[in-house]
Amino acid sequence: MNESNIDWILALACLLAGIGIGAIGYHLLNANVARNQKVRQKLAETELELNQVRDSLNNHFAQAAELISNIQRQSQELQQQIMLGADKLSDDVQLKRRLHQQGGEELVDDENESSLYAPRDYAEGTDMSDDYVIAPKHEQDSTQPPRY
Asked: From CA 10, how far away is CA 18, in angstroms rounded?
């Protein structure tokens, strides 16, 4: 064999070895990239699903709140209708009084008008004297613990 043929064979063998090593390195490095791409895709799908669940949960709570307000409104309407019916048709004063107390209204009859009164922000008669003064703190008895 000729020395020049050995140089060409050696160069060709090195080229093939370099291509093989490069292919193996590319495959190993690309495997992590593909795995990362799958993880990113799964994360995006999970975030989309989470957003859909949040939206459906928000819609559910909005519908539940609307239904509750409808029930409360209908309950108040029913209570008003029962009170009006009891006022018109019933002779039982205790029943009327109880219905109006549950409805948050006060029943005003001619016979019970004297028992109803408006609260006042002052005392009647001589409950408080004009010379009533609160003692300063340093003059109070210090043996008793402070009241809260």
From this structure: 12
Does pTM surpass 0.85?
no
- Which residues make Cβ contacts (< 8 Å) with residue 66, sequence separation at least 6? none
Tokens of 11: 């160069």
Spatial distance between the Cα atoms of 135 and 123, rounded to a whole number of angstroms: 21
Whole-angstrom CA distances from 81 to 77, 91, 123 are 6, 17, 40
pLDDT single digits (tens) 15-61: 999 999 999 988 888 877 778 889 999 999 999 999 999 999 999 99
- What is the biggest distance separating any 2 CA atoms in the chain, rounded to whole angstroms? 138
Tokens of 113: 């008008």
Written as one letter, the residue type at 2 is: N
Half-sphere CA count of 134, side-chain side, radius 13 A: 2
Q: Report H helices in the chain.
A: 3-89, 93-103
Query: In which residue are the tokens 């018109």 written?
Result: 88
Amino acid at the residue 62? A
